[in-house]
Amino acid sequence: MQRLRSSNATWVLAPALSVALMIGTAAEACTSFVIRNTDGGVVYGRTMEMGFVLKAGAIVVPRKLALTSLGPGGKPGSMTWTSRYAAVGLNAFGLAVLIDGLNEKGLAGGALYFPDYVGYADAAKADPAKTLAQWDVVGWVLTSFATVAEVKAGLSGISVVGLADPNLGVAPLHYTFHDTTGASVVIEPVDGVLKVHDNPFGVMTNSPTFDWHLSNLRNYVKISPTNAPPLQIAGQTVAPIGQGSGLLGIPGDPTPPSRFIRALGYAMSLERKPAGIESVRAAEHILNNFDIPKGWVRPDKSDATVMEFTQWSTIADLANRRYYVKTYDDQVLRGIDLTGFDLDAEAIRSAPLLAAPTPPALPFPKP
């Protein structure tokens, strides 16, 4: 539960987001990455997978809004802060909670699923004045900091607790953030503390822990976007079949370790484009490779109705403060220009992600 206050409005939000993020193995396929453009700018992209509809919407959180993260039992008294920077992003079930987003200073990031390895702080031992519920971390970071360096410094003394839903348990989350300098950080609640990892690759998926993924990279040191040369055996030349022979062995399954390797391969080898829409479109091509259609991932044989799928994908153009989204039912990339809003407004702005109408026919001339 979260209460957001301004001088003219109050929002009281039930803990439905925790329900949305607690379906065990039905939410383990989120993929995130960054790419660089030709002038050093950064574009961030990620997907959101879930086994049921999140009813996501876009929200803009203005500056100077008083925010409160509620503690165990939905009681007030946990951490409070005032939004220093405006932010745009996506929520779930109409709640004023950021799952993913971009702020006015070009800091972007989001929460991804982190099952089996998450270890939140003990709420009974944490200082309430420096304690956040797990779904409030992204909103706190994006409304409070301008750079990754500031985020890392601001984490001192902060505790993240896992608030439970009575029926489904606790949402296991970890977090990724990126800034306009190209710096990236991964924040993981493990063993009751926040483990902070610099992320030179800018890629993150799900479990295991981030340091495990870095070690796993050593299994793929021969992968290359360049075709392998022919092999000479017994006086014979054995040439590769077709294109892409340098990528033989790259994992193609949807598990988090495989997606980490594949996302890194795309991000590191992608042809750099100029800043703006060309780099955004390049990031979109990477995202398309991680799109999961309904039926491809089925967490439980006993329930054929639960099928994980890519509900939405987002792209943040950090330099231009533009945030883009496309959904499972509407693959047209739609943009939100954060600079076009009144960032000192007294209320949060929101808009649902509506399904697209039937595409119009191509305008062929009549014979």
Short structural summary:
This protein has helices spanning 16-20, 137-144, 148-154, 210-216, 256-269, 277-288, and strands spanning 2-5, 10-13, 32-36, 42-50, 57-61, 66-69, 80-82, 87-90, 100-103, 108-113, 131-133, 159-161, 164-165, 169-170, 173-178, 184-190, 193-198, 231-233, 236-238, 309-317, 322-327, 330-337, 349-352. The protein contains 6 helices and 23 strands.
Distance between the termini: 61 Å
- The helix tally amounts to 6
Q: Largest beta sheet, briefly?
A: 8 strands, antiparallel
- Spatial order of the strands forming the largest sheet: 17-16-15-10-9-8-5-23
What is the beta-strand fraction?
25-35%
Uncertain residue ranges: 1-26
Estimate the global geometry from the Cα principal axes.
Answer: globular
Helicity range: 10-25%
Number of E-type strands: 23
- Give the averaged pLDDT, no decimals: 88
Written overview of the protein:
The protein is an alpha+beta fold. The protein is built from 6 helices and 23 strands. The chain has helices spanning 16-20, 137-144, 148-154, 210-216, 256-269, 277-288; strands at residues 2-5, 10-13, 32-36, 42-50, 57-61, 66-69, 80-82, 87-90, 100-103, 108-113, 131-133, 159-161, 164-165, 169-170, 173-178, 184-190, 193-198, 231-233, 236-238, 309-317, 322-327, 330-337, 349-352. It has an 8-stranded antiparallel beta sheet, with helices on one face. Strands 3-4-20-21-22 form a 5-stranded antiparallel beta sheet, covered by helices on one side. A 4-stranded antiparallel beta sheet has the order 2-1-6-7, with helices on one face. The longest helix has 14 residues, at 256-269. It is globular. 43% of the residues are buried.
